[in-house]
Amino acid sequence: MTLTSALSNALSGLTANARAASVVSSNLANIHTDGYGRRDLALTQDGYGTGGGVRVDGVTRHVDAGVLSDRREADSALSHSETRARFLGAVRDSVGTPDQPGSLSARIAALDAALTSAASRPDEAGRLQAVSLRAGELAAGFNAAAATIQDQRMAAEAEIASAVRSLNVDLAQVQDLNVQIQAARRSGGDSSGLLDHRQVVIDRIAELVPVREVPRDGGAVALMTPRGALLLDGPAVTLDFTQSNVIEPHMTMEGGMLSGIRINDRDVAPGGPRSPLEGGRLSALFDIRDTLATDAQSQLDAVARDVIERLQDPSVDPSRTGGEAGLFTDGGGVFAAADEIGIAGRMALNEKVDTQAGNELWRVRDGLGASAPGATGNAALLGAMSDALSARRVPVSGDISIGSSTAAQRIGGLVSHLAQSAMAEDRTSSYAAVRQTELQTRLHSDGVSSDAETQRLLIIEQAYGANARMIRTLDEMMQTLLRI
């Protein structure tokens, strides 16, 4: 080996160690950066005419593709279950539990207690007023629960529109990053930063839609869902959704009144077992809008109908003529079975006994159709209304299996059904969170370790110093030759 070869080798060693130090510093600086893949310097022996120096072939980015894919699947599952759990929890809270003041169970119990109290002293105006107030509060409770469901549907609709916009933007960004990565590799440049950014973007996509990454030539990737929907392979697809500004209880996608999803102008099922997009937050939002909310509304309407019909029965208040509403109305009119959809939101206290509207209390005692006050000691109507609420009836609508039941038991069945649904989804969400956390930990275990990087830095320092000493020694040897 000549002095020139030795000097060239030492200089190549200095260059390699300087690059290695730069890589280590980048690793340490990005130890908490999402999507950052740990880097290593790829080195090979330079055996072409230099006597065996070192050549830097590039920077290698380390990511466990299998764990990353599993983590993304867990992200989708967690986002899906958390979105559903939040909705079910909100609906459960809107009806309350029996031990909560203001819950539907507490309000029906308060109305029954007010009727019993008024029946014992029908001559006391305060007790009659309590019946009116408690009935109004029960109607308001149904209204509030129905409003919560409709608000959640509207919120889901808006979030779907936002999610579709985000998906289109992110898919287009992955398409652009694919092109940039391929160009960087063709020119021999370092594409690690672009790969980091692409990983972050695909992670965002995975929260909305389950996605699998398929390698393509030149470092590009294709994206598809586990159920076969192609999202990107070269050009990205375009997702279309038309947001509705108003959603009424009767409006559904099946009825053609709400938008579904189109991928490149092709209709696809947006949620459910047949959907190619099932599993992320997007499909959960469609579940809320089209299934969970409509089911909850249907159950709430069925219970509201039961309460209204019990007190609308002509045998309860003979003073009313045919076609007149009972204590509760459908937005001020008589309730008809064909109008059940949305009745919980329209349920209202009959204005004839609404003291806040300035009407007479004596109608609570003497009948909604009475033309004048009757005997102050007559408690027949009050007792009949209490009996109607306590009577056991077989439900004529709703699919909660409760059998023959009182009004309070119907409400209790609804409360129990909603609580069980929310609890089941909470369990699913908890499991998904544990699995996502475990996979995230596994992914990080292959990431940047400050201890390992510090040890590498010490080795680099020693190697750099050795190469520097080699250059100094060679310089001294050359100076000696020149002095001869």
Automatic annotation (TrEMBL):
InterPro entries listed in its UniProt record: Flag_bb_rod_N, Flg_bb/hook_C_dom, FlgK, FlgK_helical
Span of the signal peptide: 1-20
Record field: transmembrane: none
Flagellar basal body rod protein N-terminal domain segment(s): 8-36
Keywords recorded for this protein, A-Z: Bacterial flagellum, Cell projection, Cilium, Flagellum, Secreted, Signal
GO molecular function: structural molecule activity
Flagellar hook-associated protein FlgK helical domain residues: 102-309
Entry's Gene Ontology BP terms: bacterial-type flagellum assembly
Highest taxon, organism lineage: Bacteria
GO cellular component annotations of the record: bacterial-type flagellum basal body; bacterial-type flagellum hook; extracellular region
UniProt domain Flagellar basal-body/hook protein C-terminal: residue ranges: 443-484
Subcellular localization: Bacterial flagellum basal body; Secreted
Family stated for the protein in its record: Belongs to the flagella basal body rod proteins family.
NCBIfam families: flgK_ends
UniProt cross-references to PANTHER family, sorted A to Z: FLAGELLAR HOOK-ASSOCIATED PROTEIN 1 (PTHR30033:SF1)
The protein, known as: Flagellar hook-associated protein 1
Classification of source organism: Bacteria, Pseudomonadati, Pseudomonadota, Alphaproteobacteria, Rhodobacterales
